Amino acid sequence: GEDSAAGGAPSLFARLAVGVFRHRGRVLVGTLLLLAAAVWALLQGGHLTTGTIEGIESARAEALARGAAAGSNDQTLAVIFHHDAWTPDDPRFARAVTSVLSRVQRLPEVASVVSPIGAPEAFRARFVAQTGHDLLALVRLKGGEREATAAIPAVRAALNDSGLQTTLTGKVAFLAALNELLEHDLLRAELLSFPLALVVLLWVFRTVVAAMLPLVVGGLAVLCGVAGVLMLSHVTNMAQYTLNVVSLIGLGVAIDYSLFIVSRFRAELARGLTTEQALTRTLDTAGRAVAFSGLAVTVGLGGLLFFRGSYLSAMGLGGALVVAFAVLFALTVLPALLAWLGPRVDRGRLPFARAEGRGGGWHALATWVMRHPWWVLLPTLTLLLAMGLPFRRLQLAATDITALPEGTEARQGAETLARLFPREAATRVLVAVEFPGGNPLTPERAGALHDASRRISALPGVLGVESAVTLVPGMDRATVQRMAAAPPQFLPADVQAARAAYVTGNVAVMQVLTSAAPSSVEARNLVRALREDRVVGDGRWQVGGQTATDVDAAAFVKHHTPAAVGFVMGMTCIVLFVLLRSVVLPLKALLMNLLSLCGSFGALVWIFQEGHLHRLLRFEPGPIEPSLPILLFCALFGLSMDYEVLLLSRIREEWLRTGDNTHAVAEGLERTGGLITSAAAIMVAVFAAFTLASVVVVKAMGLGMAIAVALDATLVRVLIVPAMMRLMGDFNWWGPGHWRRSHARAQGTRGTEVRP
């Protein structure tokens, strides 16, 4: 807005305001068409998955073992049959199980069914519980994770009406339940966040019409953002969590941006400007801040694109998309509505409305901060650093079955499986041995596999090894080699079954069983030990499974984080430098963002990992999801710029007008403090709605963002930032000689024309 303020050519934002004012009808019609397209996209649906990371070792191991029936449990359902009176030896029990599994086997989505009915005694003993009333069957589904998850309803329908109690569990059942809960959490959070935001908006604006406008923009942004994610899911992998991220971020930033613009528009109208003049002035100031803020948020989320091949990059893409919609609607649809409303924006004044104007409380706070900067700075810095200390104890692990509420079938089934069939429920580490070519069970290779299985069995915490050369009891190395040399048709039935289950192509599969929990240190140490010596004869193995995925995911995030963090911080500096024309203030902004994130991350570990407040928030403590810290960093780093841009833009306006740093900082704080805390209250209300989610990672995401925004808007932006700027004085505005001369000219030629 500097050119227009100086009487020169209108700025881009001033021209945008004039265009929207004159063509507001076309803008609103175009918005309706875009809304119709978004609704159409929502009706088409999408193909959302859970979080996956391509290229890591655990994924390669899963790919190698995919052709083996016992190679992976990812597409396998565990079905527990129970009858209060019948036993598995009862013919009625056997007929009922055989009948229902026959229906399941005929489903086009089912690849195979394994049942103890009619199986060899050694195999049957593993799948019949000692209770005498429970039996376990395994249903392997076709396709990948997405197709297997989609097949759950058909399998569940086929299992009904068997006269037996049936319980489904396994990874596929967990993913299906998780997706259903995520959809439910998203709907509930949105239904709660809109009323909460409306209450805060009514308190801020004191008029119904003004309070409704940000909700309109927020709803449009989220609707179009979700529609965009669903459309993208047809051409790239999009995790189910992306919808929650889009809703969480989109609603918060869209309402905040609208709050800034509506507040400035009403203030300009109150000064006596016409509707067109007020709109032009609003977009020239608040609109410019919104555009730069949106760019900063997009840059922050753009850091997730460095995690290529993972669900994090999809989340970054979805988040950037919804922020772009929020900025677009805030700079077009909202001004069109304001142009149509004009002074009617203040219609529906509430009984508790107060007179507009500068609040005495913010004036007093600004004055006090300017007089006592050290008394403000030192205690608040100490508090934030102390809050961040628990982050040093961070532990990472992927979401598992404990993320589901206790009443869900998949979790109850997992607990029943662990109680009745402990060996089948034990943690499994996949070892896929790839040979150069040919049969992996030649006598030489079979002997090497037998030696490797003995070596693995001796590792700490290993309960046993299941493979083609160990599944049948009593087979020593010589016996294994003799059977490997024998024609397949002369082998015992149980040996043939073991070969069919644990061999595919030139790959031999082993399942290493351990009693350690998948996310435990012991299980991770086992994975690392297995990866130290990979040689098996002329073959080598890859290690997979849930624990290996946790190890690989943490390493993947750690490897890509420096580049992502460097990009976000570097680009944020550039954006703020262009906006503020200062070298010092962007660096100070980075430090302030890190402080608020420090406190938020520490609180996250203290609450969710160490279990404080677990009764109040109703969750089971455990390690943090590996993606959560970097996701919060990228999202919150950009969101924190909302308040930084708003505050510093207003301070800069006053500094250009007066050249007095102390006065500019005090005036900027006084003018924007109430708006910042109000905007933060809205965002905290939106984020807090997600703490009621059933899924722990969504609960942690919502609470972590709410804490970070609350800290940022209270301790950081209205206390630490003004105190530091007061202490740094005119050094705040230091820049290269060209920019210093530009500032001097701006102060001399435009100072009397720029208004706060």
From TrEMBL:
<feature type="transmembrane region" description="Helical">
    <location>
        <begin position="211"/>
        <end position="233"/>
    </location>
</feature>
<dbReference type="InterPro" id="IPR004869">
    <property type="entry name" value="MMPL_dom"/>
</dbReference>
<keyword id="KW-1133">Transmembrane helix</keyword>
<feature type="domain" description="Membrane transport protein MMPL">
    <location>
        <begin position="57"/>
        <end position="373"/>
    </location>
</feature>
<protein>
    <submittedName>
        <fullName>MMPL family transporter</fullName>
    </submittedName>
</protein>
<feature type="transmembrane region" description="Helical">
    <location>
        <begin position="563"/>
        <end position="584"/>
    </location>
</feature>
<feature type="transmembrane region" description="Helical">
    <location>
        <begin position="590"/>
        <end position="608"/>
    </location>
</feature>
<dbReference type="GO" id="GO:0005886">
    <property type="term" value="C:plasma membrane"/>
</dbReference>
<feature type="transmembrane region" description="Helical">
    <location>
        <begin position="285"/>
        <end position="307"/>
    </location>
</feature>
<feature type="transmembrane region" description="Helical">
    <location>
        <begin position="705"/>
        <end position="725"/>
    </location>
</feature>
<feature type="transmembrane region" description="Helical">
    <location>
        <begin position="675"/>
        <end position="698"/>
    </location>
</feature>
<keyword id="KW-1003">Cell membrane</keyword>
<feature type="transmembrane region" description="Helical">
    <location>
        <begin position="372"/>
        <end position="391"/>
    </location>
</feature>
<dbReference type="Pfam" id="PF03176">
    <property type="entry name" value="MMPL"/>
</dbReference>
<feature type="domain" description="Membrane transport protein MMPL">
    <location>
        <begin position="404"/>
        <end position="743"/>
    </location>
</feature>
<dbReference type="InterPro" id="IPR050545">
    <property type="entry name" value="Mycobact_MmpL"/>
</dbReference>
<keyword id="KW-0812">Transmembrane</keyword>
<feature type="transmembrane region" description="Helical">
    <location>
        <begin position="245"/>
        <end position="265"/>
    </location>
</feature>
<feature type="transmembrane region" description="Helical">
    <location>
        <begin position="319"/>
        <end position="341"/>
    </location>
</feature>
<keyword id="KW-0472">Membrane</keyword>
